[in-house]
Amino acid sequence: MIPEGEFRDEGGPIRPRRPWWFTALLILLVFPAFATPWLLADAPAGTLLEILIKWFPAYLLLSAFCAWYAYPARREVAWILVALMVLSSGSLFMI
Prior knowledge:
By secondary structure, the chain is mostly helical.
């Protein structure tokens, strides 16, 4: 019998479920991706900054998915990815 709030992934060990607040946090951290048009309007054309801004939404979505996927088994990795998302969002808006 598997306790409530836990699940078994492909016959492996029992792992805890992802809490709803962690999923909500990841959704909030992806919102800066919607600022891409405004960031591109301020970026000089043909520069590295323009390329970074264009790839920024893909980076945020991929990082959020990886953090969400890693949370049950490796919480430290998930929190490191969350911290990197926060720092990269802040640094891109400061440039």
